[in-house]
Request: fold
Amino acid sequence: MPNITVAFQGVSGAYSELAAADYFGKRVKTKPHVKFADVFRAVKAGRVTYGIIPIENSLAGSVHQNYDHCLEHRVWIIGEKKFRVSHSLIVNRGTKLGDIRRVYSHPQALAQCSTFIGKLKKAEAVSYFDTAASAKYVAEAGFKDAAAIASAQAAKHYGMQVLRSRVENKAENFTRFLILAKKPQYPKTSAGSKSSIVFALKNVPGALHKALSVFAIREIDLLKIESRPIPGSPWKYLFYLDFSGSLRDERCVLALEHLGEITTFIKILGSYRAG
Amino acid sequence: MPNITVAFQGVSGAYSELAAADYFGKRVKTKPHVKFADVFRAVKAGRVTYGIIPIENSLAGSVHQNYDHCLEHRVWIIGEKKFRVSHSLIVNRGTKLGDIRRVYSHPQALAQCSTFIGKLKKAEAVSYFDTAASAKYVAEAGFKDAAAIASAQAAKHYGMQVLRSRVENKAENFTRFLILAKKPQYPKTSAGSKSSIVFALKNVPGALHKALSVFAIREIDLLKIESRPIPGSPWKYLFYLDFSGSLRDERCVLALEHLGEITTFIKILGSYRAG
Reply:
């Protein structure tokens, strides 16, 4: 796939870039972007073939801003990738464990490695806006008394050294990524497929229960529900729903028609193979 | 109420402190704490009478870490306060609008005031970990070329000046705060009351729909649903649910008994007057 390009947010060595290589194979060209919104825009404008964004971490929860972006930008979810996140403690060559006074990383990564960092008696955790960028920072500053927590690939990319691998508290650290494209690619069958929608409910009693009923009565499994505020309408919510099945399957199409009777708004985000 | 103390997270002038004054009246003594978890611990240990924490903003959404804290700490929700957040641009005395090169505040506050900041041609937005603390910082550093975005009360507290009021993009900016106590205080009647619970579902088809049915069949309104990951169980969720009614009302008690049939875990977080 020599001409395929994939937009991701972050710098080289970011987990999004590694997940893209896992999903597409290493021959695709990954393109770094500063903001998540930039990834959506690059896909929409056709400047890249695909985009990849994190939507949920198994320890930290949803990446809520990316739910908001899925609503705002007219792009389609065409796949997903569940990626095992493994953090490494990485340093400039020559730095030893006892030299470390500061450990830079994203606050979530620092929290996920709190047990390990706690054992480094002389070191304090310092928040940085991004994991891979914290590695880049330690490399470029040439620190001999600091480390970063990031991917092993970030160490390689910035000419650094992995001092310890798998420094996270819990092994069950997965991030689920969504693959974005300009056009939808609904799977032919429901087996192994899932679909994502977002909707707003009419102001009627038991509206959420009724909304979920349209799936229950058709034995369509709900996989995830996420609520987000509607700006300008305090204490009213948009619901993001993942359910099993493809939107080429009539059962799913009928469920959405039925859902339309109790919603003020529905947007289909995509139908795709489950990761 | 001279002996009542209320723990909040942040520094003097924080919106949490203002919301506490609004809820309890100005005679209560507010006690600043560094972390949200410290507020929960102070309540649990009886070091303060009450705690106050933000749970949701009408533009930015839920404060997810405080949902997690509600699960972890054995304290009770005994009230709520919906507080209108109004941001001010505050400076050290003598600083004029044209002098401002940097505007410090929490990233969410900066985002909420992006239109106003965008019109300050020479100024850039600088992220700070807290709104009131950004005011404190500008005051203590004595900057003549910087401003903070925080409450008008923060300006007063740190001897600063409000240069512009209501600099937020949208007027509908409310934060909902929860009042925490060591013991529950269930309201006598369901009218005007709400209850909050958290539960995990059995692994059965249509489990979430069935869970919501126990409320629907009793005509109990659902007010909010929020899902959070279960650490160590990727892609399984805890559900936080707010519903109308008091847990002194038999209808609500029966609904929770019924819910127990399809959950592996339920915790009651509290029953209280709706704000």
